[in-house]
Design brief:
Layout: H1 2-15, H2 19-23, E1 28-34, E2 37-40, E3 52-55, E4 60-65, E5 69-76, E6 82-91, H3 101-114, E7 122-130, E8 133-140, E9 146-150, H4 157-161, E10 166-168, E11 175-179, E12 186-191, E13 196-201, E14 206-210, E15 217-223, E16 229-233
Antiparallel strand pairs: 1-2, 1-9, 3-4, 4-5, 5-6, 6-7, 7-8, 8-9, 10-11, 11-14, 12-13, 12-15, 15-16
């Protein structure tokens, strides 16, 4: 298997420019352009995960990630900075009910729809310098629509100005205590599969949440307008 992947990587590197950069970089979706309209990635209450190119035993797989992941297998052109879809993939089915919900859900749908194309469909790509990092631009060869990614996560000004809340005692057993929050903020506890297991409103600067009935595992607590935090239930 190791030899197969090494030969595959060598073939990809020789067949198109910048493929090593694609494979060795975490890409964070930053904006989309449809026709003359450009939409920047909306801020949301969960951590933006990177979009990544990975190698399988036969092809390369790309997962474009926002809330959900739009994934498919591809093959690079031997003569141009482009790739074509080998197997049409699909999109994961996580629901988002946090703040900025309408904008986040609409943008998430655009990300999923962008790559839902038949086998043989061609996308062009370009990797360019962006300050101390890099940007990836993927263009639909048929209609010219584009998705932009950065090699670093750009935090929104609104989110970066807000202090994060605190979690007392992590891992958690029967009660999760949130500190440094205002009363009346929406919160959700989400499991590793993206399912909401508890939700409610903060009661004050220190809010206690009963976690006795949720199963052991890893969770995220999302508080309105704050950076999500991970905790372990034991």
């Amino acid at each position: 298997m190791k030899k197969t992947l090494l030969f595959l990587l060598a073939g990809i590197s020789l067949s198109a420019q910048n493929t090593s950069e694609l494979l060795n970089t975490n890409w964070y979706i930053s904006q989309m352009t449809e026709g003359s309209q450009t939409t920047s990635t909306p801020a949301m209450d969960i951590v933006l995960q990177p979009s990544v190119f990975t190698l399988s035993s036969e092809n390369c797989i790309f997962n474009s990630k926002y809330v959900n992941s739009s994934g498919f297998s591809l093959v690079f052109s031997g003569t141009a900075d482009s790739f074509s879809i080998v197997n049409t993939g699909g999109c994961t089915l996580q629901d988002y009910w946090g703040s900025n919900m309408a904008a986040v859900q609409a943008y998430d749908q655009k990300n999923c729809s962008f790559y839902l194309k038949p086998a043989g469909y061609v996308f062009n790509y370009q990797v360019v310098s962006n300050g101390s990092g890099k940007s990836l631009v993927i263009t639909d060869s048929t209609n010219g629509n584009k998705i932009y990614y950065n090699s670093f996560f750009l935090e929104s000004k609104e989110t970066s100005k807000k202090e994060s809340f605190l979690i007392s005692q992590n891992p958690v057993k029967e009660n999760l205590v949130l500190r440094n929050v205002e009363p009346g903020l929406s919160f959700q506890i989400v499991n590793a599969a993206g399912q909401i297991v508890i939700e409610g409103k903060t009661s004050g600067k220190e809010t206690q949440i009963n976690t006795a009935d949720i199963v052991i595992g890893q969770y995220f607590v999302i508080v309105q307008g704050r950076k999500p935090q991970k905790f372990i239930k034991e």
